[in-house]
Amino acid sequence: MPSAVIYRMILPDHECPFGRRAKELLDENGFDVEEHILSSREEVEDFKQEHGVATTPLIWVDGEQIGGSAELEKFLSAHV
């Protein structure tokens, strides 16, 4: 079973729809998902700065950084 790690934003008043969609895609495609929730604006901003990205989610598949939701969709269409 392929494995994936996803960091996505779920704040008290907002869940990122791209993160939710990415998690659904991973589940639908049979991935063993290790999910990390960024639950405050500070966590989100620190994470984006640390990884040099402008948005969340950020996804790795089998140790390879894929990117966000759009990149995951492209990856899955080419590999699944």
Overview features:
about 80 residues; five-stranded mixed sheet; Glutaredoxin
Describe it for me?
Helix content is 42%, strand content 32%. With 80 residues, the chain is an alpha+beta fold. The protein has a single domain, classed as Glutaredoxin (3-Layer(aba) Sandwich), CATH 3.40.30.10. Strands 1, 2, 3, 4 and 5 form a five-stranded mixed sheet that branches. The longest helix has 12 residues. The protein is globular.
In short:
The protein is of the alpha+beta class. The chain has helices at 17-28, 41-51, 69-79; strands spanning 3-11, 14-15, 32-38, 58-61, 64-67.
Low-confidence stretches: none
> Shape from CA axes?
globular
According to DSSP, the number of beta strands is 5
Task: Give the end-to-end Cα distance, rounded to a whole number of Å.
Answer: 12 Å
Q: Give the count of structural domains.
A: 1
CATH class category name: Alpha Beta
Structural class: alpha+beta
Largest sheet: 5 strands, mixed
Report the C-alpha radius of gyration, rounded: 12 Å
Topology:
Blueprint: E1 3-11, E2 14-15, H1 17-28, E3 32-38, H2 41-51, E4 58-61, E5 64-67, H3 69-79
Parallel strand pairs: 1-3
Antiparallel strand pairs: 1-2, 1-4, 4-5
Helix pairs in contact: 1-3
